[in-house]
Amino acid sequence: MKRAFDFLMAAGALIVFALPMLAIAVAVRATSRGPAIYWSDRVGRDNKLFRMPKFRSMRIETPAVATHLLSDTTAWLTPIGGFLRKSSLDELPQLWSILVGDMSIVGPRPALFNQDDLIALRTEHGVHRLRPGLTGWAQVNGRDELPIPDKVKLDVEYLQNRSFGLDLKTIWLTVGKVIRAKDISH
After folding, report:
1. Where are the alpha helices (DSSP H) in the chain?
2. Residues linked to residue 39 through DSSP beta bridges, in sequence order
3. Number of other CB atoms surrounding residue 171 within 10 Å
4. Would you say residue 11 has pLDDT above 90?
5. Which pairs from 174-179 meet CB under 8 Å and 24+ separation?
6. CB–CB of 20/73 below 8 Å?
7. What is the pTM of this model?
8. What is the pLDDT of residues 27-63, one digit of tens each?
């Protein structure tokens, strides 16, 4: 049931957001050098790598590390990158990853391929068995503000209590967080 829900929600969202996504792609290309979409190597279900798309909010020469590891995140942003990240519009291309089955609407956020500490801790607690999500329980309970051990505790809580009801609650809370741009530090 979860996979069918994910597919239908992603397909519907792609239809609804098709024109805004086209406008964002044009704006990214018009304001910075490089492609509109950035494909990032991420860790998926059972620690298998997949390519996850995002609207490019960082300059093309930005190092491929977690944003919090950059010394000055704002120095790497494109002219519209801060807006895209603050509004979470940079995440819209991930609807494609949901359609093809690499991601879910709700699940732990996919780790970068080189976030060894996060990957190891998730694997130790069985979280790696989940399909990563566009949003997740940790996202609505702290987002960028949480240290990795706290994120994994929330991922484990989701793993142990996952249900359609918890997914709907997470989606509802995500909408509120995105509208208020709450808990986004970079």
Report:
1. 2-16, 18-31, 73-76, 81-87, 94-99, 116-124, 137-140, 148-161, 164-180
2. 53
3. 16
4. yes
5. 174/135, 174/139, 174/140, 177/139, 177/140, 177/143, 178/87, 178/88
6. no
7. 0.88
8. 999 999 999 999 999 999 999 999 999 999 998 887 7
